[in-house]
Amino acid sequence: MARGDTALLGSDWVKDVKGIASMSKVSADLIDALPNLEIIGNFGVGYDAVDARHAGANNVMVTNTPDVLTEEVADTTIGLLIDTVRELSKAQEFLRRGEWGKQVRYPLSKLSLRGRKVGIFGLGRIGKAVARRIEAFGLPIAYHNRRKAADVAYDYYPSLKKLAGAVDTLILVAPGGAETTRAVNTEVLQALGPEGVLINIGRGSVVDEEALAQALKDGTIAAAGLDVFANEPHVPQALLDAPNTVLLPHIGSASVKTRRAMADLVVDNLIAWFDTGTAITPVPETVGVKAVRQ
Asked: 23 with 147, same domain?
């Protein structure tokens, strides 16, 4: 299902639906409307658009696509960071407009990656892959999670605000959901400071976009690079108008190779479920779901 709407659910065929491969919202109402549904294969590692808790309570398996997109998204994150700091996209536009050679040089970028301190909000699979890449630049790394990770030596901060106050580059890799909605607010942005750079490749809902637009406008932070937005594909006009942003249309994992691997994992989960009654990559809310065969 590509849209997640329920317009066709009055049809007789809904009773025959046992599996869904989805790229969008799967609500509790949709789950309830499919009486024989067994599994939802979510196309993506983030599954906040799927009511996984309701699915699990109704013995419906939910799977996602971890690992296969980790390195691609981490690569995109670094590219977005460098572009945001060094203004590479703007420099290319300058060249394409024919400005180079008119006795005009492109202005020096005000920011540099050199000497930055990087904070990561969400040190899961992708967050750790981003951190490995940041290490190659010789930059110090700190992080905030719900709890301290046992397998990393990076400095841990118990709150996002404290992390923001300790760094000047904040990379968001956190999942969506009630716990992280608008976690990056005015206070966090103020803590990040006037040299601060915000990068978001996690979920748009994690950022208070109105507060971010204001922070970019008044110099509370220096710049932002965003691959995700709260109400996609809508992008707030204030962010579009901000000259100190780099904005991407949610392309973190969008290469042919990676998207094919993601699609293969969705299909493999569906096949495994119907062949063996087990899933390859179940989400935590549904690990206890058991197949019921007539």
From this structure: no
Q: Which residue is catalytic, options 144, 203, 209, 285?
A: 203
Q: Is 19 inside a domain boundary?
A: yes
One domain for residues 93 and 235: yes
Question: Exactly one of 250, 259, 285, 293 is catalytic; which is it?
Answer: 250
Q: How confident is the model at residue 14 (pLDDT cuts 50, 70, 90)?
A: confident
Residue 6 has pLDDT above 70, yes or no: no
Choose, from 232, 234, 259, 293, the residue flagged as catalytic: 232
> Catalytic residue at 87?
no
Catalytic residue flag (residue 250): yes
* Contact of 36 with 12, CB cutoff 8 Å: no
Q: Are residues 232 and 261 in the same domain?
A: no
Q: Is there a catalytic annotation at residue 54?
A: no
Name the 3-class secondary structure at 247. Answer: strand
Q: Which of 24, 31, 34, 46 is nearest to 281 (CA)?
A: 46
**Domain of 282, in residue numbers:** 12-67+255-286
The answer to whether residues 126 and 42 belong to one domain is no
- Euclidean distance between CA atoms 159 and 188, whole angstroms: 10
84 and 214 part of one domain: yes
Residue range 281-285: mean pLDDT, rounded: 98
For residue 156, is it within any domain?
yes
Cα gap 18→61, rounded to integer Å: 11
For the segment 147-197, what is each residue's pLDDT rounded down to a tens digit? 999 989 999 999 999 999 999 999 999 999 999 999 999 999 999 999 999
